[in-house]
Write a structure and sequence with these properties.
Layout: H1 4-19, H2 44-48, H3 52-67, H4 70-79, H5 86-102, H6 105-119, E1 123-125, E2 131-133, H7 137-158, H8 164-173, H9 175-181, H10 190-200, H11 208-219, H12 228-241, H13 244-249, H14 262-274, H15 282-289
Helix pairs in contact: 3-7, 3-12, 5-6
């Protein structure tokens, strides 16, 4: 049993580090009362996205796969603040994910529309001279699929195993949001996702930017000093989630393996966090908005 005071401090810390802080938009997930989200309250998505540990691990996995695609890599590295202000960028991305899953439909649709307008202004060429646009439906499908994969695998490996039916549901639940973002033919099952990854594999490539990204994540002061070693463990866990062929193609097979017992430690942490009542969590506020018990998702 974790003392209530410690839970309250953890709640405040997670709110500040993952979806709060300077530069993060302020969203009241408890309003408008009664308005549903893009994903249903009994969805696999609502369960998986409420766990901050698996979101952090899965988010790094997703970014690694995004950066493996040359056009996406150029767009992210040249047109975002990730290199200069990674924490602010992560918070904004984390909040966007929370709004997409838990926000009232009117709020999430407005946010997605705004992101789409921003993407429409981003274009350029890769170092090899290949043109790209941030609103390219093919690239949006890749970004969407890699995010789904990272979050699903992290929850499956380090929080609670998902049976095949739940994995298919999780992928299918992302389709409405993907279409709003402008993704082309988003995967609607795990088989679709696997086929997309296999088709993209020849286009993925190793890049020093990927290793620079991992170096940035290692230096990020996201955790209190006594817990900094846990960050390295979570980064290695993120690499371990990559499909084996992708991991090999990116040159991440050596030097990033989880140490003995690392997987067990992370699973213990993930499952423990999953049982906590975090009052400021978007999932808790969203449950209240729909007239559900604030702890509706605990134990589901």
């Amino acid at each position: 049993m974790i003392p209530p005071l410690l839970v309250a401090r953890l709640d405040a810390y997670l709110r500040e580090q993952l979806i709060g802080g300077e530069g993060a938009p302020v969203v009241d997930f408890s309003q408008p009362v009664g308005e549903p989200a893009l994903a249903a309250a009994d969805s696999v998505s609502w369960r998986a996205f409420r766990n901050p540990l698996s979101l952090y691990i899965g988010g790094i996995t997703a970014v690694l796969m995004e950066l493996a695609e040359p056009r996406v890599r150029s767009g992210v590295w040249e047109h975002t603040t990730f290199r200069d202000d990674p924490l602010r960028r992560m918070r904004r991305t984390g909040m966007a994910a929370m709004v997409t899953v838990y926000g009232a439909r009117s709020i999430s649709e407005k946010m997605i529309f705004g992101i789409g307008r921003m993407h429409a202004r981003i274009a350029g060429k890769t170092p090899d001279g290949v043109a790209y646009r941030a609103d390219d439906p093919e690239l949006l499908r890749w970004v969407h699929a890699t995010a789904l994969f990272g979050f699903m695998e992290a929850y499956h490996q380090f929080v609670c195993p998902l049976v095949p039916e739940e994995r298919d549901r999780f992928v299918a639940e992302g389709v409405p949001a993907a279409l709003l973002y402008g993704a082309m033919d988003p995967p609607s099952s795990e088989r679709d996702m696997t086929a997309l990854f296999e088709g993209m594999l020849p286009h993925l490539e190793r890049s020093e930017i990927i290793f620079e990204f991992l170096s940035i994540m290692r230096r990020l002061p996201l955790f209190p000093l006594p817990l900094r070693p846990a960050n390295e463990l979570m980064i290695r866990a993120s690499v371990s989630l990559l499909p084996p062929l992708v991991r090999k193609q990116l040159g991440l097979d050596a030097g990033f393996r989880l140490p003995p017992g690392g997987r067990k430690i992370l699973h213990l942490l993930g499952s423990c966090v999953d049982r906590l009542h975090l009052a400021s969590s978007p999932s808790t506020q969203a449950s209240t908005r729909l007239g559900l018990d604030p702890d509706y998702l605990l134990g589901r």
